[in-house]
Amino acid sequence: MQVSDFKDKHRGEMAFILGGGPSLHYVDVDLIRDHVCITVNSAIKKYITCNYFVSDDQDIMSWDYYESHVKRTYFHTNFFYDKKFEGKCDDIDKKVMYSHKSWYSPEDKSYSFDGLKLTKDEPIIGARTSMGSAVHLSFLMGCDPIVLLGNDCQLSKEGLRYYWQFPGEQKQFRVKDRKFTHQTQNRGFDKDSFVEYWNYFAKVNKDSDVNIIDASESCLDCFPKMSIREVLDNYKKEKRSVKES
After folding, report:
1. Which CATH number fits the domain that encloses residue 73?
2. Residue 5: CB atoms within 10 Å
3. In a domain, 236, yes or no
4. Distances in Å between the alpha carbon of 66 and those of 41, 43, 58, 210?
5. Is 241 inside any structural domain?
6. How many domains, the chain?
7. What residues have CB less than 8 Å from 225, skipping those under 6 apart?
8. What is the residue-level pLDDT of the chain in tens, covering all 245 positions?
9. CA distance 81 to 198
């Protein structure tokens, strides 16, 4: 399968993208089961019957959910960033590899904002986070609106980074490499860089013909904010079950 095979596959359908941020703990996934659902990284353990899974991060292969949920593709299709996963996920049949444009060069600290422009063509936009990849893939699929869940870009008031750290959630753990602890949880977490990324993304795509809605408990102010129920009320469409072939 190729990314182009999914072009306008879900034209006009509502899509929910689930990230692993702490506010996902409070999401009732039963509310979104009739719509296109895309999980990013650890969010798949919250909603295993999603339609799609997306990751830019090869580090997911050191977590238990990769073996127990990602590789068991009973329900979903996996989308992987080719530069990070090429040759490392050959044992997964139901997968699509995608490539990225460049939007920022850390070597000379230069920006190429055309690399953030949403189009229906490949490669997809440059991304600071796998959520950015999922947004572009859902746009390419023709989804509208696109609703962001668990895209907090900040720690919870309890100081937690992920939804699964809350009581009552299925805990996640590393099966190899370094252990995850409260001391290591913020490794690689840079709130300012996430906010910068989404602000630039929103500015570049302000004239895009798609509605992107923030239903997370995020620190962002670049997208309209609504609750899931408000989204469902404001974008009422005929419900139908989304099945992935």
Report:
1. 3.90.1480
2. 9
3. no
4. 9, 11, 10, 31
5. no
6. 1
7. 213, 214, 215
8. 899 999 999 999 999 999 999 999 999 999 999 999 999 999 999 998 899 999 999 989 999 999 889 988 778 999 999 999 999 989 898 999 999 999 877 778 788 899 999 999 999 999 999 999 999 999 999 999 999 999 999 999 988 999 999 999 988 888 766 555 554 555 666 778 899 999 999 999 999 888 999 999 999 999 999 999 999 999 876 444 444 43
9. 19
- Assess if residue 245 is contained within a domain: no
- 243 within a domain of the structure (yes/no): no
The residue written with tokens 């039963």 in the block is 30
Please confirm whether the linkage preceding 106 is cis (ω < 30° from 0).
no
In sequence order, the 6+-apart residues with CB closer than 8 A to the CB of 242 are 10, 13, 34, 35, 36, 37, 51
Instruction: Give the span between the Cα atoms of 210 and 142, in whole angstroms.
Output: 9
Domain extent, residue 28, equals 3-225
87: region left, alpha or beta (phi > 0 left; psi from -120 to 50 alpha) = left
What sign does the CA torsion over 14, 18, 22, 25 have? Answer: positive
**What pTM was estimated for this model as a whole?**
0.91
CB 38 within 8 A of CB 143: no
